[in-house]
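Tutorial sheet, problem 5. The two components below are modelled jointly, 321 residues in total.
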Amino acid sequence: MTDNEHAEPTAEERWVEEKVAVAARELPVLAMSAESELRIRLALDRELAGGSRDFGPVLTVEELARYLRVPVGDVYEQLEELPAFEFAGEVRFLRASIDNWIREREKRFRRQMVESSLRSGRVLRLA
Amino acid sequence: MDELTDRELMVMFKHGRREAFEVLFGRYRDHVWSYLRRLVADGTTAEDLTQDTFLAVIRSREGYEPQAPFKAWLFRIATNAARSHFRRGERMTVHTLAGEDPEVESAAAPERPPDQAYEHELSSALEEAVGKLPGALKEVFLLHQVHGLGDEEIAGALELAPASVRVYLHRARKALYERLRPLLGDFKESRTDD
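Model answer (C-alpha cells):
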C-alpha cells in the first residue's frame, strides 16, 4: 500500500502496521459507569415492558393526557410543542413520536441538571 | 445462556425471550459505549447514544435477519446514531480522552517505574492521536483494533466495500504512526539495530 494503496505493503509499511497494532493494545474497551448503566437499563426496561401497551399506536388528546398523567388542558396548552398531526379535523399523536419526544426531553432535563450542578459546584457524575 | 452465539441470542430475543437480550446487552454495553465515547465529545452524549442504540435493537428485532452478523448490525446502528447526532448540528469535534482527569494524572505519575511510565505515555499519546483521526478512519480503526471486528464485519457496519476498509485502516495506522513516531521509533533505525 505505497502510492497505490491496493498494492502489496512494503517492509516498512508492515513494520509500521505492526508497531501501531502493538501500541494499540494500550487502547482498552472503556467501561460504562454504574450510573450510566442503571439509567440505560431503566429506559430499556420501560421499552421491553411495553409500558404504554394500554394505548394504541395513535393517541387522542385525552389519551395523551392520561399517558402523561397531566390534565387535558395542559396538553392543549402545549400543543405547539408536541409532535401532533391533524386528521379529519381531529388532533392525534403517534405514540412512537411521543415516546421519542419524551426521551429528548429527558436528555435535555438531564443536561440541565448536570449544568446546574456544575454551576453550584456540586459534582454530579453522569459518565 | 452465556455460551450461545450472538445470532442465537438475537433469534431467541426475536421470538420473545427477553433474557436473551439481557445477555447481549451485558456482552456489548461497554463495547458500544466505549466506541461511541471515542466518537463523540462527552460522556453524556455517549450515554444517550448508547441508549438509543439498544432501544433501536429492541425495536428492530423483528427485522433482524439471522444470516446478518450481529456485531456488524449492532455497530451499524451505533455508528448511525453517532452520525445522526453530528447531522443534528453537533459537528465532529477533535477531542481526546487523554489526560481527562488531571488530578489522577498528577497524583499517579511520579510513582510509575520507567516501563509503566512509557506505557502510560504511549497510551495517552495514542488516545489523543485516535481522537484526532478523521471520522471514517477513526470508526474503522476503533472497530478493528479495539472491538475486534473483521474486515467484512466493518464493511457491513459502515456500509463500505471490504477493500475500502483495508485502505482506511492503512491510512489510519499511517496517520497514527506519524503522530506517535517519537515514541514508536523509526523503521530505518530498527534495521540498524538488527
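Marking note: Chain A touches chain B through 38 residues (CB under 8 Å). Full credit if you identified this.
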